[in-house]
Amino acid sequence: MKTGAACVIDGLKKAGVKTIFGIPGGQVLDLFAALYHAPFEFILTRHEQGATHMADGYSRATGKVGCCLVTSGPGATNTVTGLATAYMDGIPMVCISGQVPSHMIGNDAFQEADTTGITRPVTKHNYLVKSVNDLPRIIAEAFQIAASGKPGPVLIDIPKDVQRATMTDAGATRQVIRQGKQPDLKGDPRRIRALADAINKAQRPLLYVGGGVIAGDAARELTALARKAGIPVTTTLMGLGAFPETDPLALRMLGMHGSVPANKAVSECDLLIAVGARFDDRVTGKISEFAPKAIKAHIDIDPSAIDKSVRTHIAVLGHVRHVLKALTPQVRAIRRTPWLRQIHAWQKAYPLTYERNASDLLPQFVIEQVDAVTRGNAIIVTDVGQHQMWATHFFRYTRPRTFLSSGGLGTMGYGLPAAIGAQAGLRDRTVITLAGDGSIQMNFQELVVAVEHDLPVKVIILNNGCLGMVRQWQEMFYKSEYSASQLGQSGRAKNERIRSTTNGYLPDFVKMAEAHGAVGMRVSKNREVQPALRKALAIHRPVVIECIVRPDENVYPMVPPGASLNEMIHSMA
Amino acid sequence: MKHVITALVENQPGVLARVVGLISGRGYNIESLNVAPTQDPNMSRMTIKVPGDDHVLEQVTRQLNKLVDVIRVSDLTGRRHLSRELVLVDVLAPAAKRAEVVQLAALFGARVASVQVRSVTLEMVGDEDTISNLLTLLKPHGIQDIARTGEIAVARGG
Ligand SMILES: Cc1cc2nc3c(=O)[nH]c(=O)nc-3n(C[C@H](O)[C@H](O)[C@H](O)COP(=O)(O)OP(=O)(O)OC[C@H]3O[C@@H](n4cnc5c(N)ncnc54)[C@H](O)[C@@H]3O)c2cc1C
Ligand SMILES: Cc1ncc(C[n+]2csc(CCOP(=O)(O)OP(=O)(O)O)c2C)c(N)n1
Question: Could you tell me the CATH superfamily of domain B82-155?
């Protein structure tokens, strides 16, 4: 009979796992011993947070369940941020952690942590495995739970003795998740009919499309509906790529840093159809004034997402793909000329733009150049901050799974490891990570992983010398007092002055890149950007391009916190 | 408003923490909680009494329903249901007062569970209001100790 460790390997094989990210340690040595002969690619990361973001990026790019493996105690606690990031954005992932032997649990054993306790609020489900005989069932279940309904991360904590034990009863617990836990996928036909009727009657309908359309692989069905019925489309940050942003019906992103036409359309529409979107507060602004003139409809697979923050009039519980397939034949092709004319007038009057004739290098310009040079064909992975918002503005997404970003948790340090994971899953795609000089320092160590595994990610650091998003809020709402947001020498508060005599900015990203085995470049002028990008794309190795950009550029438009979408700030007066 | 939520759950470690975590994570204080196995030893029934905003608790109920090891949840508030609670109360009752206390207990259908030299322990099953009434009337006699199970509830068929 098999050992627990062998059961795990078997279970992972059955689940179709190809790549595992992680770091070994005392309590997972048996798993690693079994892994030594197993047919998986194992990617040894340099931090467990990196492993979780890689599994997450792998999942977002490929649509498969990502997988990572870590040791007990500090190995497991290091996964918390990565699990929470995946949990907030509904990303399917299975994380296996080692645990101290069963009889020592609760004794403050060496490298013991209550991993299931700590990760309970940031996982869709977790397990502490008690018996080796449960392992086959638990592994199968974990992958099923991660990928079904609203997807999410699942953690399996396996004590060392369970990994070493021999199975005695293979069929002991064959029960898989109870029926009835499976949500209704098809959607109630009467509600779909009601939604079709509402669409057919509406004068000013609007589709508000979220990450659920990408998770549910329904971009094609969504596009078919929008084009047949002639309904304009705005997407959330998580929904970017679900509808081609090159289409005349595309209003781009809505919300706090959304486009003006998108936010105006929300405020004026008479029917708002939320498709796989969860009415996040970054999207709605002041909730009582969100889409005030509209009948609100919501298609979602998660019963607890319905009516969570906004009461809807027509709710269809089901899988987006099934619901859209049933809905589209029932809607009529109607030309709503006044509405579309209004939309096009807004699009013309309020394009996303910036100071195009600036003499110094602007971050928006760099991103536009990336779009131009890759002809929109790259997978863009971002960190968190201003550059993340500009990545939504100045790159046009036309396909799902091409914009990967930590939306719900907003995790700085996500970008580089997620890009590595994406590239590990899709080796022949161009993967580019756009990072801030703050965020990139949170997981820079993972660059060696890209070099080692021949994963030619391109890292573009938009170095504005500050924690830009924080700086912007301080400029706008905190009297320009830049408390702890300056990364360079100048502009620091008295109590955070740099004491050493280093001159200039630390670290030197070009040297960092080289020290990690990658290619490093630095640009600071407009005309250097395109050549550098072309050169980087031609090199089949990881490349870091540091772009020295204007330090005090702000993201506009912006809906101030607590305001309604109608009250956008277009620029600093 | 006070809500009575009942949940049928897998009889397994960790389930209680998960359910309670979901409620307490929102800053709600559970007033009473009762868990015990059902006729199927693989399943337990929980009855949770928690005061809170109707809309928020509707969300909580939906989220509880999503948990993998929660089989079924319903909020019984405002629906036909039967609820009971068991209380054990130890009251001062020296010989001179004993008859009076026992008589009072009898009015409520409470039983004398044990008799001590200076006190008696009463046991009573009832709904929340009746139990509170009994306790109010016993108070002047000197309540030494109370243990309550918290409400348990089942939905009633139509
Ligand atoms: C600095 C910063 C600024 C931000 N600014 C903005 C902004 O201006 N605008 C913006 O949009 N976002 C912004 N965000 C992101 C924001 O915080 C949220 O992450 C995002 O808006 C949520 O997107 P979503 O509603 O598409 O939900 P997701 O988190 O993607 O959730 C998907 C929804 O679809 C459902 N679903 C999943 N699968 C299916 C299926 N198969 N069928 C049906 N339904 C399904 C899920 O149940 C869920 O309700 C910002 C983030 C940061 C860090
Ligand atoms: C792990 C983490 N810590 C802190 C924050 C708060 N935060 C949000 S944006 C930001 C600044 C990001 O700076 P940088 O990466 O340089 O990007 P920029 O805004 O300058 O483009 C900070 C500190 C966060 N989102 N994540």
Answer: ACT-like. Chain A, domain 2 (3.30.70.1150)
The whole-number average pLDDT for the span A247-257 is 98
Write out residues in chain B with pLDDT < 50, as ranges.
none
- What is the CATH topology of the domain spanning A189-349? Rossmann fold (3.40.50)
Identified catalytic residue from A48, A112, A141, A446: A48
* Identified catalytic residue from A1, A14, A41, A110: A110
**Tell me, what's the pLDDT at B64?**
94
Q: What is the fold of A4-172?
A: Rossmann fold (3.40.50)
Three-class secondary structure of residue A10 per DSSP: helix
The 3-state secondary structure of B12-73 reads CCCHHHHHHHHHHCCCCCCCEEEEEECCCCCEEEEEEEEECCHHHHHHHHHHHHHCCCEEEE
CB atoms B59 and A308 under 8 Å:
yes
A304 touches chain B (CB under 8 A): yes
Per-residue pLDDT tens digits for A224-244? 999 999 999 999 999 999 999
A111 noted as active-site residue:
yes
Q: How many CB pairs under 8 A join A and B?
A: 36
Q: Which ligand is nearest to the CA of A274?
A: 1
Minimum-distance ligand 2 atom for the alpha carbon of A440: 15
Q: How far is the CA of A185 from the centre of ligand 2 (A)?
A: 38
List, as one string, the DSSP characters of A260-272. Answer: HHHHHHHHH-SEE
Unique residue bearing structure tokens 């996500």? A414
pLDDT at site A181? 66
Q: Does B66 contact A128 at a Cβ distance shorter than 8 Å?
A: no
User: pLDDT of A79-109, one tens digit each?
Assistant: 999 999 999 999 999 999 999 999 999 999 9
Q: Which residue of B has its CA nearest to A124?
A: B67
Residue A177, pLDDT above cutoff 70: no
Closest by CA position to B50, among listed B67, B25, B72: B25
Q: What is the ipTM of this complex?
A: 0.89
